[in-house]
Each structure stands twice: as structure tokens, then as C-alpha cells.
Amino acid sequence: MTQDFLKRAGWFLVFVLAQAMVLGRIHLFGVATPLLYVYFVTQQPRNYPKWASLLWGFMMGLLVDIFSNTPGMASASLTLIAAIQPYYLELFVPRDAAENLRPSLAALGPVKYSYYVIPLVLFHCLMFFTLEHFSFFNILHWALCVVGSAVLTLVLIFTFETVKLR
Predict the structure, then answer these.
(1) What is the pLDDT of residues 42-73, one digit of tens each?
(2) pTM of the shown model
(3) Which of 34, 31, 19 is nearest to 67 (CA)?
(4) Dihedral sign (CA 156, 143, 133, 88)
(5) Are 37 and 15 spatial neighbours (Cβ–Cβ below 8 Å)?
(6) Of all helices (H) and strands (E), which one includes residue 85?
């Protein structure tokens, strides 16, 4: 239990610092920003307590908000993803799978993992940029931000998963 908590806390710090120091400063073509910290929430194991997942998601979102000067946007959208993730994961995990199954490219396979992670990242980007723009007057810029950031984030997530396999 303690080892798992320390490992999770270490990854928590890595993702927060990476987002705050490096990834938050990248804005490709003025619209695409990688939001890799959502990967932390998508990796919660199957039997992980829902309250703990919500707490981790909110705390990570709060720290990203503090460092990125995005008041409440990351914490709200990441807490929503943390609330959805355990129920959404059950759609892709067989009933006889291990209780501590951690969703990954190796555990679920490429197709199921894609069906699992792509909607979560898209939904996170949709919520994040809807809160950021807070209007639909410039809907083309909003859509470009959502799609561009989701694609960039997914490329980073699949790259990270592929490197983790080796």
C-alpha cells in the first residue's frame, strides 16, 4: 500500500511538473496544447477507490491550475474525468480480469485501449476548452483547440505507452 502510494505520488509530481514547466508553454499553431496530465487519471487501476481517484484528479487539476494560471478549468475537467473513468473502464475489461488491472496498451490491446483513452481525452479537452472560452462566439477557434489539443495529447499518450512496453 505504501509503495503503491509513493509510486503514484511520484508520477503525480512528474506529470504536474512536466505540465507546468514544459507542456503548458507549448501552443502549436496557437491552438494545440498538450494536456498530458490526463494520462495520470486514465491509468487508475480497476479496483482503485473512487473517492481516491476523485481526490487525485482534483489535486492534480488544482496544481496545474495554480501553475498554469487557469482558474478552475483543469481541476473541474480532470475531476469530471476521474469521476467517469472507473465506470467507463468497466466497459472494456472482461469480468474475469484481475481486480488490480491497470489500463494500458499491453493489458487491453491496441483497439480496446484506443476506444478507452480517446473518448476520455476528447471529453477532457472539450470540457477544458469550453470552460476556457466560456462562449461559442468563436466556435472555429474553440473546435481547433479541442481537436488539436486532443490529437497532440493522444500522440504523447500513445508514445508513452509504446515506450513503456519496451
Answers:
(1) 999 888 899 999 999 999 999 999 998 888 99
(2) 0.91
(3) 19
(4) negative
(5) yes
(6) helix 73-89
